[in-house]
Amino acid sequence: MDHLLKYSNLKRGVLEEAGSSFSLEQLKEHFSTPINSRRALSRVKSLACIIHLLEERDVLNWRNVECLKQLDDLLLNNKIGELVQSYKKLFLEDIEEKLCICGVQTTFQPDSSPMSQRQENQCLTQNNNHVIPDLIEALRNISQRIGKEWPYLARELGIRECHMDRIRNEYPNNFESQAKEALYLWLRREQENASVEILDRALNARHCQRRGIGSFMRRRM
């Protein structure tokens, strides 16, 4: 995804500007609270390790780069602050307006030959319970926009790898239909227990967040 590439470039730029002429112990002390692990900090050998630990704890991610901004003051390097500010101004502020239900850009174009309406209706009618319109809308919006990252969400929803392999074989090179089939598989399995709130929690789980898949389900939630 484009936002992950830009985020990766930002981290690379920060590491290059930081160089090696700084006190690693000072940085470890500064970030000890969010990292919250003496054992992990004892193994830190570089600034890159600190960044990795912050990402593991979701303190630092593509949408929240304030930890990198703090390096500006800690390392007395204004160029780091300029890199972060440029990233936030030119990218984050722009993408906020394009975020959709699953937190990715709405410019995603579905593949050709999507799941037919008949197949979609079959998925829904196999669920004998009443399904609220908001949930169906959420499933469709996510399917259209999540792209190739859909397996991360599917795993959070408890979809087995063998089922995901079957879905990939059934809809090769068609991410929208793959995502839709996986989500409707979850819907049929959970029936009345399926809800927008559960989707919200799955999208905000660690692995989904680290992939930048989404930090919220709906603006009004």
Automatic annotation (TrEMBL):
<feature type="domain" description="Death">
    <location>
        <begin position="135"/>
        <end position="204"/>
    </location>
</feature>
<dbReference type="InterPro" id="IPR000488">
    <property type="entry name" value="Death_dom"/>
</dbReference>
<protein>
    <recommendedName>
        <fullName>Death domain-containing protein</fullName>
    </recommendedName>
</protein>
<dbReference type="GO" id="GO:0007165">
    <property type="term" value="P:signal transduction"/>
</dbReference>
<dbReference type="InterPro" id="IPR011029">
    <property type="entry name" value="DEATH-like_dom_sf"/>
</dbReference>
<dbReference type="Pfam" id="PF00531">
    <property type="entry name" value="Death"/>
</dbReference>
